[in-house]
Amino acid sequence: MTDSQYPTVEEVKHRLEELAVRVANSSIPIDPYVMRTVKRVSEELQLMIPGFEPVADLDTVQICIEEASAALYGENTVGALAKSFDGLAMAPHNPQLWYIVAICCYDLGAPLLSWIAANHALWIHPGFHEACGFLDRLVKLD
C-alpha cells in the first residue's frame, strides 16, 4: 500500500488479479475473502474517476468480456467470474465486466455481492440498461 490512505489504481488492479486466480483455483469460488475484496475494490474505485486511467490493451479486455460471456452462456459460472476479474484487472472501470460479475455472484448464491457489483456497473455507466434491468429483477425477487 502506498503512503496515502487511498490505494492506487495499480494496487486495485493487483487485487483484482489475485481474485481471478483465487476464484479459478478454489472449490468455493465466493468465500468471505472474495466477498470482502470485491466490496472493498468497488468502494475504492468510486474514489477514482472512470476513464481517467487509460486501458493499456482494449483488445485483450474485449476478449475477456467475450470469453466471460461465453463461459456464462455455457454455464461455467466460475470460469466467467474468474475471466471477468482478469478483465477488470486491466480495466477496473469496465461496467460490462462488473455486470458479468453481478450475474455470476447471483448464480453462485451471493445476492448481496451481486447487488454490489451491479450497482457499481451503474455507478460507472448510469445508462447501462442491462445492469439496471438486472437490479430491478433482483429487487423484485426479494
Name the CATH class: Mainly Alpha
Task: Report the CATH topology name.
Answer: Serine Threonine Protein Phosphatase 5, Tetratricopeptide repeat
Regions with little confidence, pLDDT below 50 for 5+ residues = none
Give the full name of the CATH homologous superfamily. Answer: Tetratricopeptide repeat domain
* Strand residues, percent: under 5%
Number of helical regions? 7
CATH architecture term: Alpha Horseshoe
Shape: globular
| Gyration radius over CA | 14 Å
Descriptive notes:
The chain is globular. The chain is mostly helical and 142 residues long. Helix content is 70%, strand content 0%. It has a single domain (9-141), classed as Tetratricopeptide repeat domain (Serine Threonine Protein Phosphatase 5, Tetratricopeptide repeat), CATH 1.25.40. The chain starts with 8 loop residues before the first helix and ends with a helix.
Features:
single chain; 142 residues; mainly alpha; Serine Threonine Protein Phosphatase 5, Tetratricopeptide repeat; 70% helix; 0% strand
